[in-house]
Amino acid sequence: MLIYLVALAALFGLLFGFDEGVIAGALPHITQVFDISAGEEGFMTASVPLGAVAGAIVAAVFADRLGRRLVLFLCSVLFAIGAIASGLSHNEWMLIFARLILGIAIGASAMAAPMFLAELAPARHRGAIVSAFQLMITVGILVSYLLSYALDPLGAWRWMLGLGAVPAVICLLGILRAPESPRWLAMRGRTGEAQEVIAAVQPHLTDEETRRIVDDIVHSHSVETHTSGWRAFLSDEVRPIVFFTIAAFLLQQVSGINAIIYYAPTIMGHAGFDGITTQLAATVGVGVVNVLLTIVAMYAVDKFGRRPLFIIGFIGTAISLAVIAVTMMESTPHLAPVALVGLFAYIAFFAISLGPLPWLYMSELFPLALRSKGMAMASVANWSCNFLVVFLFPVVVLYFGAAATFAIFCAFCTIGAIYAWRYAPETKGVTLEDIEKQHAMAAA
């Protein structure tokens, strides 16, 4: 059962990454077919993070009311509908609407799937299982780049977008066989079913041990209902956490990562690579580096700590973006390899630091009673800034040039390095309970 659930979570992560990344390969063909402006191009590409803002809010509201499993089932349906509608789009506005649907599915599943897994997984495996979801996002991006590279000679952009329905249908069938979260069942008073689920996921536990786990869940929920109001976020204890987690996500987004993920082939063209096929080949390299360094991050974050990685990540991305900006001032073929090295270095530093750490900080710093609401607030901030960066990128490039745009990203990363040095906490090796006590003492 545990292996089955990890595989299912991996598919939701893959869908997330695939539907974010596939537009990069399809976009050069779409702009030719529909003859769209820079503003329309930006809005079409940014419709996914715009939809994800709504999706994160929907998941925060309905995950407790309907259950994690039903929310994920509905996400699977939206993933399938959005992919098919994208492939069948007859104009840019139909495509925008289809990608809004995909965005809602991404925003909702990005909250519901890790929550579902964390509540199902045994404590000793929880970190690895939730990290597997994050890893598979990068795998999904890579798969979308490889598919785009394979289909590009045929100009089959509709197939690039539409094939996302295949893993969506697999997720749809898979979630039907998955159990509901034992925590949600316990909150609803269905303690017998909760014990059955825990016993299925952890068959080595005795009946007494499963009953004790369910009793702890029920007790925790009874405490949370008295301390989980929105006013708690204004307290001296929680307010600094809200500011830090939201700032971490905003700085992550203005580093330019999603502009690179969505517009990678276009960026390769500005760097001096000629031909869509060559640009896509270089883009595949970006996807490979992203996956490999995300695997490294899963080990580095507990070995070296959060704070050093966060600081080093901002410094490294700032230097890498400076290299890219300088090479783009010339935009000649002989400088293209230098720009590509800078881009690979940027992805490497991002993958081991700026990518996973805001999500990790968010899950560690908020008190248990406020964690779901805190995650929703930070997620909405993340997706909102994601939308603005992706929407404005082609417009800023059009009016100011690629070199100036990457110089702006470099400046934000420099600000991020200073902010991380000043405010980033170290939570390595500290239990969640001790982190909560530390914030309470600091507020006092």
TrEMBL record:
Signal peptide positions on this chain: none
Key words of the record: Membrane, Transmembrane, Transmembrane helix, Transport
Any coiled-coil regions, as ranges: none
SUPFAM superfamilies registered for this protein in UniProt: MFS general substrate transporter (SSF103473)
Cellular location(s): Membrane
TM spans (from-to): 43-63, 70-88, 94-117, 129-151, 157-178, 241-264, 276-301, 308-329, 335-362, 374-393, 399-421
Protein topology in the membrane: Multi-pass membrane protein
Entry superkingdom: Bacteria
Domain Major facilitator superfamily (MFS) profile: 5-428
NCBIfam families according to UniProt: SP (TIGR00879)
Similarity comment: Belongs to the major facilitator superfamily. Sugar transporter (TC 2.A.1.1) family.
Listed PANTHER family: PROTON MYO-INOSITOL COTRANSPORTER
Name used for this protein in its record: Sugar porter family MFS transporter
Organism: Microbaculum marinisediminis
